[in-house]
């Protein structure tokens, strides 16, 4: 994962590639074992790709914005308005989600792309805690064409249009396919949480929910 700045030297490209490899490996591991607490009684939403077979006319992509730190994520369809905290990598090389005592907070990978800038910005959140749903509990119920808004420190609100929702099994997990940029030069966003069933033997969920979106405009 790049640090949000262009690098033109051979060493810079190698460093960027190495960072991508570490991050993608960590995200793969994160998808296999992201939590050690049992799910809330009702369990998270699960299933195949949301919107399968649904024909939606999507707006064109907007030109990427200059980098600016994210402050809040709004998902109107889910009633989510969540503060954003910058996060690094944990000891396994995965994006470190917010602490379990902050279930309403979204973590942004601070060494990667800022939401609205060119590239794929990564945001992670818990699906639940031992006692209650968390910020991304209903993430897999989103549909293509719906909107995610990111309030940025520069005063702009980046509007992202969802174009893909995947519930990916932890077996044969392809981290590059899940988290890598889909189209060069486009500003993209990934919202990531746990999905599938909770495996009480491994103390982890059996899948990951990955919502993909792209910048389609700015506004209030």
UniProtKB/TrEMBL annotation:
It comes from the Bacteria. The keyword Transmembrane helix applies. Pfam families: Sortase. The keyword Transmembrane helix applies. GO terms for molecular function: hydrolase activity. The chain crosses the membrane at residues 12-31. Keywords: Hydrolase, Membrane, Transmembrane, Transmembrane helix. Gene3D superfamilies: Sortase. CDD domains: Sortase_F. NCBIfam families: class_F_sortase. This is Class F sortase. It comes from Streptomyces griseochromogenes. The lineage of its organism: Bacteria, Bacillati, Actinomycetota, Actinomycetes, Kitasatosporales.
């Amino acid at each position: 994962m790049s640090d949000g700045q262009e690098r033109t030297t051979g060493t810079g490209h190698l460093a960027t590639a190495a960072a991508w490899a570490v991050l993608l490996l960590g995200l793969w591991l994160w998808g296999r074992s992201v939590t050690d607490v049992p799910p809330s009684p009702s369990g998270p939403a699960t299933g195949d790709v949301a919107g399968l077979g649904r024909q939606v006319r999507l707006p064109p992509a907007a030109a990427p914005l200059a980098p600016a730190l994210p402050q809040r994520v709004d998902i109107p369809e889910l009633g989510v308005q969540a503060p954003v905290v910058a996060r690094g990598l944990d000891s396994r090389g995965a994006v470190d989600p917010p602490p379990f005592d902050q279930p309403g907070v979204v973590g942004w990978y601070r060494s990667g792309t800022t939401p609205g800038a060119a590239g794929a910005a990564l945001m992670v959140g818990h699906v639940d805690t031992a006692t209650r749903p968390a910020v991304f509990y209903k993430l897999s119920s989103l549909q293509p064409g719906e909107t995610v808004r990111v309030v940025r420190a520069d005063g702009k609100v980046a509007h992202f249009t969802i174009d893909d929702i995947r519930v990916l099994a932890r077996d044969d997990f392809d981290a590059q396919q899940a988290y890598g940029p889909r189209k060069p030069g486009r500003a993209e966003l990934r919202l990531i949480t746990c999905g599938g069933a909770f495996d009480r033997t491994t103390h982890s969920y059996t899948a990951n929910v990955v919502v993909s979106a792209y910048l389609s405009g700015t506004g209030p």
